[in-house]
TrEMBL record, chain A:
Cofactor remark from the record: Binds 1 FAD per dimer.
Biological process according to GO: fatty acid beta-oxidation using acyl-CoA dehydrogenase
Phylogenetic classification of the source organism: Bacteria, Pseudomonadati, Pseudomonadota, Alphaproteobacteria, Acetobacterales
Organism: Komagataeibacter oboediens
Protein purpose: The electron transfer flavoprotein serves as a specific electron acceptor for other dehydrogenases. It transfers the electrons to the main respiratory chain via ETF-ubiquinone oxidoreductase (ETF dehydrogenase).
Family indicated by similarity: Belongs to the ETF alpha-subunit/FixB family.
Essential cofactor(s): FAD
Annotated protein name in UniProt: Electron transfer flavoprotein subunit alpha
Automatic annotation (TrEMBL), chain B:
Similarity field: Belongs to the ETF beta-subunit/FixA family.
Pfam families associated with the record: ETF
Single GO MF descriptor: electron transfer activity
Electron transfer flavoprotein alpha/beta-subunit N-terminal domain residues: 23-211
Quaternary structure note: Heterodimer of an alpha and a beta subunit.
Keyword rRNA-binding: no
Protein name according to UniProt: Electron transfer flavoprotein subunit beta
Source domain of life: Bacteria
Species of the source: Komagataeibacter oboediens
Length: 312, 249
């Protein structure tokens, strides 16, 4: 069996989540990968160095077509004949493209898997992680997205795969790429950060939310947010941790003023160590926190910074 | 211009789902059910387009058990003009639902199909993309802004780390993300009015669609519980524990 993994990359560097998807794919068979975009050549080089990758398919495209679901889904459907499974890390890109590919192949996709039982049977969360369903697919081919935090990423160096250029089909047309706007940040990527500092409703407003930055700076942390903080406009939704946002599993997760709604817990409960600061002693976040402080976060935040400076 | 809005009846998002003792699924009997929150956003967007004079008719569709008609009444109370209930007691999957919707699109010929990006029960996030694939029509998933002008729709989409804008020729498929709008509550007079709006009832067989699921559920289980830890009194103690006990800083 050979598995095709559609990789996400940023300016040629393969995202860690995609290396987790390769780890999942390795449990199923040999691994080929696909990279697309204007920086596909650089990404292909990085991908070829990943141990366990046999072949890299590279689509160099500067027209913006590779940003669109329609042609990429058509490409994956064309390539599918050579593969038993098509995988990708659960990202906005993969969720846009893979279900469309599945429709073209008359396959029911299997999103967000957290475990592989055998070539047909997978475990995936449902109801925002309130339950885990084990499902068996009757389809000849499987189209799967992988929850990256459930699979340890493979190494990024040590392999030597062949690289092959493939062409992007035109697709059905009707869609035009206009623009991408990325927000700039010096901080580590939320999904791969070793430490995440998140703020919730308790941060009160956009101005106060920025008070998390000095703490995050001291810990080299990414900044996250609960849905309540996003809905109230404290930060934009790319910060959102939870079932409908990012799923994270850092070594240390610090929840400041987050009550711990089910949908937030679904996004962070696999973190190694969880710290919660909340003024409500009954807040559900304390049921999953390893260390909790009941109190006013605006008092505790500067104390925490001072303590870190002291001992560090 | 006509818009088709598919809606799903799911366990209300405020209710914590309980896994059945026999591990066959999640208990829905006697549990409060509501319209999938992302579908509410889709209905709201269609209604706003109608209020702007861009859209002339909104057709809501639901596929599922007879009680899904409650969800269709809600959609009509929000502003949909009529509805179609496709009755089935088979477990619905995005693939089978997309096939039903494709058949309805071919019959109804809408210019725009707006769906929620994801149902909060099976969390599949697939039906819109699959419908677009089956129809061979353009798609814009995870929409946070929708502009219809000159037989085209410009959509701003949520992507990892920012946003993306695409322009689609109509007919097109859009899936709604959280920030697209804030859905209205249906007013009592509108709820009363919705009772009189037309609802057509058909079956997947009428549309020639085979609903047989491709995924069989082997088991459903509670996720492993995380244990509550300890409460500390000071920031100093926390930093000391993180450094010396948990060894994460």
């Amino acid at each position: 069996m050979t598995v095709l993994v559609y990789l996400d990359h940023e300016a040629g560097a393969i995202r860690q989540a995609s290396r987790s998807a390769i780890a999942a794919a390795s449990q199923l068979g040999d691994v080929d990968v696909l990279v697309t975009g204007p920086d596909a050549a650089a990404a292909a080089k990085s991908a070829a160095a990943i141990p366990g990758v046999k072949k890299v398919l590279q689509v160099t495209d500067t027209t913006g077509s590779s940003e669109l679901a329609e042609p990429v889904a058509a490409l994956l459907a064309d390539l599918a004949s050579g593969y038993s499974h098509i995988l990708a890390a659960s990202s906005a890109t993969a969720k846009n493209v893979l279900p469309r590919t599945a429709a073209l192949l008359d396959v029911q996709p299997i999103p967000d898997i957290v475990a592989i039982n055998d070539a047909d049977t997978f475990v995936r969360p449902i109801y925002a992680g309130s339950a885990l369903a084990t499902v068996k697919s009757a389809d000849a081919k499987k189209i799967i997205t992988v929850r990256a935090s459930s699979f340890d990423p493979v190494a990024s160096e040590g392999g030597n795969a062949v690289i092959e250029e493939v062409a992007l089909p035109a697709g059905p047309g009707g869609s035009t790429f206009v623009a991408t706007e990325l927000s700039k940040s010096e901080r580590p990527e939320l999904e791969s950060a070793r430490v995440v500092v998140s703020g919730g409703n308790g941060m009160q407003n956009e101005e106060n939310f920025k008070l998390l930055e000095p703490l995050a700076d001291r810990l080299g942390a990414a900044i996250g947010a609960s849905r309540a903080a996003v809905d109230k406009g404290f930060v934009s939704n790319e910060y959102q941790v939870g079932q409908t946002g990012k799923i994270v599993a850092p070594e240390l997760y610090i929840a400041m003023g987050i009550s711990g709604q089910i949908q937030h817990l679904a996004g962070m409960k696999d973190s190694k160590v969880i710290v919660a600061v909340n003024k409500d002693p009954e807040a559900p976040i304390f049921q999953v926190a390893d260390y909790g402080i009941v109190g006013d976060l605006f008092t505790i935040l500067p104390q925490l910074e001072a303590e870190l400076d002291k001992a560090g | 211009m006509k818009v088709l809005v598919p809606v799903k009846r799911v366990i209300d998002y405020n209710i914590k789902p309980r896994v059945k003792a026999d591990g066959s699924g999640v208990e829905t009997a006697g549990v409060k059910m509501s319209m999938n929150p992302f579908d509410e956003i889709a209905v709201e967007e269609a209604v706003r387009l109608k209020e702007k004079g861009v859209v002339s008719e909104i057709v809501a569709v639901s596929i599922g058990e007879p009680k899904a008609q409650d969800t269709l009444r809600t959609a009509m109370a929000m502003g949909a003009d009529r509805s179609i209930l496709v009755e089935t007691d088979v477990v619905t999957e995005p693939l089978s639902v997309a096939k039903v919707l494709k058949a309805l699109v071919e019959k109804e010929k809408p210019d725009l199909i707006i769906l929620g990006k994801q149902a909060i029960d099976d969390d599949m996030n697939a039906t819109g993309q699959m419908l677009a694939g089956l129809l061979g029509r353009p798609q814009a998933t995870f929409a946070s802004k929708v502009d219809v002008a000159d037989a085209a729709v410009t959509v701003t989409r949520e992507i990892d780390g920012g946003s993306q804008t695409v322009k689609l020729a109509l007919p097109a498929i859009i899936t709604a993300d959280l920030r697209l709008n804030e859905p209205r509550y249906a007013s009592l007079p509108n709820i009363m009015k919705a009772r009189k709006k037309p609802m057509e009832k058909i079956t997947p067989a009428d549309l020639g669609v085979d609903m047989t699921p491709r995924l069989s559920v082997i088991s459903v289980a509670e996720p492993p519980e995380r244990k509550a830890g300890i409460k500390l009194d000071s920031a100093a103690e926390l930093v000391s524990r993180l450094r010396n006990e948990a060894k994460v800083i």
